[in-house]
Amino acid sequence: MKKLILILGDQLDLKGAALRGFDFKTDEVIMVESMHEAQYVWTHQAKIVLFLSAMRHFANNLKELSYPLSYIQNSPLSIIAVLKEKLVDKKFTHLICIEPGEWRLKQQIEELARDVSINLEMREDDHFYCSHHEFVKWAADKKELRLEYFYRLMRKTHHILVDSEGNPEGGQWNFDQDNRKPYPKKGPGILEDPILFEPDAITKDVIAFVKETYANHPGSLESFRWPVTRIQALEALHYFVEYRLRNFGVFQDAMWTDIPFGWHSILSSSMNLKLLNPREVIHAVLLAWKKYSLDLSTVEGFIRQILGWREFVRGMYYLDMPKMANDNYYDHQRPLPKWYWSGKTQMVCMKDTINQTLQYGYAHHIQRLMVTGNFALLAEILPSAVCDWYLAIYVDAIEWVELPNTAGMALFANGGRFTSKPYVASGAYIKRMSNYCGSCKYKTEIRFGETACPVTTLYWNFLIKHRNQFESSPRTRLMTANLNRISHEDQNSIKEHARYLLSHLDDL
Ligand SMILES: Cc1cc2nc3c(=O)[nH]c(=O)nc-3n(C[C@H](O)[C@H](O)[C@H](O)COP(=O)(O)OP(=O)(O)OC[C@H]3O[C@@H](n4cnc5c(N)ncnc54)[C@H](O)[C@@H]3O)c2cc1C
Ligand code: SF4
Asked: What is the pTM of this model?
């Protein structure tokens, strides 16, 4: 037996399933920097740097541990083409890898194995709490697939925030209601900045390479300070639980101009690259809860994101692919406005969210869901174009987590397979949760006309168009009740103005 172990750029865990049973006498590890992976969507420069730098640091760890490693730098070939050459040349009998977090690559590796007649062992990624088998079993007898019930099961199965009889800590499973406050009127006040890591020699090299090679790709590298090693990721976790967790809960939905990170953890890229394990994140949070007597609402709210949402969307991705990638419930077909890539729009909410995204490759959940996501849904943009943007532009974007969040949650492209209603809101929501509207030329309370907030106009237009759908559910009926208070004449003006906006999206 002679095994080739493939480690992908988001599988950087020495304890991961790929290296289990490694035979130092016969086996070999391969890692591939394929330029194709940076180009198949128009990837943010910071995301390319993060992946390449983290891979190179990980490769050094493997070498220090004496693993025989082929590290292919900057290959113009696809990962599959490089693998094929290697498999044929060196007469390996087995190809071993962890299941990729992207359906495309999973299919291609399976095809390659058939093509070159090699034994493929695609191991499940046990980084996650919930296996595919457990998720499929959970989903099998459910009429509705909802996060809340899955999350409760995860809490009970893993004995997290439950008492010995399986009841939730604090008598409630969910403290979401306590966690939706805007910042005070004067702003967030003094925020503990997240820890940032100065680029070392390896990262500087990669930055220089990316600046030259991917000069026309979106985003900036001037603020690149992401953790690229496990040690840095652990430091970032420690820093978050010590200094920032305490305010995470209450302000997790709040937005403010030029405040890109708020009290968020900024740990998604480290977890998604597998530099951090979700178990150690949750363990650290539980310890800090006791040590600093933190509010249960903050601790539960944070744990729900990881033990609940992160595991849930992964389960949904593998359950619903490849269909999920092509779902288009509303049959939206418009192209993505050009300013999604440049931030050059007059809408302050979109400008701020997109500009910080271009600067850091980061926006927090509510910015992604209720600013850029909400607008894309209201503006009837083709879901696959929106998904490509999210996949390209966020440093933490891997398809298993990006696609269900974008297509499923933000765009309702799968018709509510795992959400009870479309997440749509007018400018009034953005005004309540941020200071964006104060400096915007548009006014949220004006529904049509030159100074009307486009989010508001398109929101009412969306409700008018899909009135029957919104009226049929008790969860959304209040929205159409509000619509019914608007006169027919005004509804016609909204429709007319919306038609104008939709045909001039690039000019907003
Ligand atoms: C349209 C859209 C696209 C998204 N794309 C991605 C993506 O490509 N990659 C990604 O990791 N997250 C994605 N999310 C989820 C979420 O926005 C990010 O995980 C979060 O903003 C990352 O920042 P943070 O680490 O500071 O998270 P925090 O707010 O501090 O939350 C803690 C952790 O919880 C997890 N988490 C929180 N919400 C979610 C969620 N909805 N789904 C899965 N995990 C969650 C993340 O691992 C995160 O690090 C997306 C959300 C939306 C609405
Ligand atoms: S007025 Fe409308 S477009 Fe302007 S910032 Fe507020 S929500 Fe955004």
From this structure: 0.97
